[in-house]
């Protein structure tokens, strides 16, 4: 059975045969046990394999990670966030989905940190989650990953927030594992590299290795962009030939149309084959198998484990994640 996760040198799939991969997927699904119907899509082969890749195919560690994500989704309800709730965060074009894709068919998220228009960490994370959900919505069926294009034009020291970076890394790495194909840091200023060294401990090695520094005056950088993108579709701000920029009114229309599709997308389900895998049946939140199945060394790189206490009681692992005053995940 096809796992549905594109094979690449960075995801480790080449180390296991397809039968070995499927066996680990089935084992992890058994460890998870029954889940509510609304979460069945996150227990598809493709989804489970992303968590396995993120934990180097360690079934116990991947199981713990996926359980935490399922509980986060039940409480945070990222698929229910709508444009009207985050439109104010989007006004400056600090994050948006490009109209173009890369040569691998991956959704492209454009990020411009210099256009930050909010001081609310909670609001910024909520908009980031909305953008991630929207990017996933627009991925082709055979693709699990996306591209980030980060434009550093106008970026200065006032735009740096270690706390927001840490919160961002926590959400993306813990709940959207292996969704990033590559992150292009376009024309970062010289002072950014020391900052990147500071935040490196917050990042998993797999994530760090997907980051590429690209400079408009460097020939090798230009080659990198040409290999990844159709230059006629790529925005001129990134060296492409497309002069169309961000327009909040047009973007709002696109997002509102996407919101109409989201309900059916996230409830469509992706049930496994009954011939080889146990059926996914409806189950209450507290019936998800939360038995201790992780190593003591399974420490999240953000500096705290969001799953503490889950073995003995049902608890939303990220319930304090977005607090700005004294959160255990705050910087």
From TrEMBL:
<dbReference type="GO" id="GO:0008526">
    <property type="term" value="F:phosphatidylinositol transfer activity"/>
</dbReference>
<dbReference type="Pfam" id="PF00650">
    <property type="entry name" value="CRAL_TRIO"/>
</dbReference>
<dbReference type="InterPro" id="IPR001251">
    <property type="entry name" value="CRAL-TRIO_dom"/>
</dbReference>
<dbReference type="InterPro" id="IPR036273">
    <property type="entry name" value="CRAL/TRIO_N_dom_sf"/>
</dbReference>
<dbReference type="InterPro" id="IPR011074">
    <property type="entry name" value="CRAL/TRIO_N_dom"/>
</dbReference>
<dbReference type="Pfam" id="PF03765">
    <property type="entry name" value="CRAL_TRIO_N"/>
</dbReference>
<feature type="region of interest" description="Disordered">
    <location>
        <begin position="259"/>
        <end position="331"/>
    </location>
</feature>
<dbReference type="InterPro" id="IPR036865">
    <property type="entry name" value="CRAL-TRIO_dom_sf"/>
</dbReference>
<feature type="domain" description="CRAL-TRIO">
    <location>
        <begin position="83"/>
        <end position="246"/>
    </location>
</feature>
<dbReference type="InterPro" id="IPR052578">
    <property type="entry name" value="PI_Transfer_CRAL-TRIO"/>
</dbReference>
<protein>
    <recommendedName>
        <fullName>CRAL-TRIO domain-containing protein</fullName>
    </recommendedName>
</protein>
């Amino acid at each position: 059975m096809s796992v549905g996760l594109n094979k690449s040198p960075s995801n480790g799939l080449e180390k296991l045969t397809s039968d070995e991969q499927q066996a680990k997927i089935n084992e992890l699904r058994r460890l998870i046990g029954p889940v509510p119907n609304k979460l069945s899509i996150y227990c598809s082969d493709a989804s489970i394999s992303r968590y396995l890749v993120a934990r180097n195919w360690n079934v116990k560690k991947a199981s713990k990670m996926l359980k935490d994500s399922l509980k986060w989704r039940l409480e945070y309800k990222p698929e229910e966030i709508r444009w009207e709730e985050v439109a104010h965060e989007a006004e400056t074009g600090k994050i948006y989905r490009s109209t173009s894709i890369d040569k691998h068919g991956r959704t492209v998220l454009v990020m411009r940190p210099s256009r930050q228009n909010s001081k609310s960490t909670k609001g910024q994370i909520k908009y980031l989650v909305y953008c991630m959900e929207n990017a996933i919505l627009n991925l082709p069926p055979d693709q699990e990953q996306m591209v980030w294009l980060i434009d550093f034009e106008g970026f200065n020291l006032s735009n740096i927030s270690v706390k927001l970076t840490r919160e961002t890394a926590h959400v993306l790495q813990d709940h959207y594992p292996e969704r990033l194909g590559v992150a292009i840091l376009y024309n970062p200023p010289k002072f950014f590299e020391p900052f990147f060294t500071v935040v490196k401990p917050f990042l998993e090695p797999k994530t760090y290795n997907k980051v590429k520094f690209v400079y408009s005056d460097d020939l090798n950088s230009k080659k990198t962009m040409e290999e990844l993108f159709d230059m006629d579709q790529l925005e001129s701000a990134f060296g492409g030939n497309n002069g169309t920029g961000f327009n909040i009114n047009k973007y709002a229309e696109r997002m509102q149309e996407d919101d109409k599709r989201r309900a059916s997308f996230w409830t469509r389900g992706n049930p496994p084959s009954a011939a080889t895998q146990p059926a996914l049946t409806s189950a209450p939140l507290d019936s998800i198998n939360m038995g201790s199945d992780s190593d003591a060394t399974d420490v999240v790189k953000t500096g705290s484990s969001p799953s503490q206490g889950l073995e003995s009681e049902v608890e939303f692992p990220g319930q304090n994640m977005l607090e700005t005053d004294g959160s255990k995940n705050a910087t």
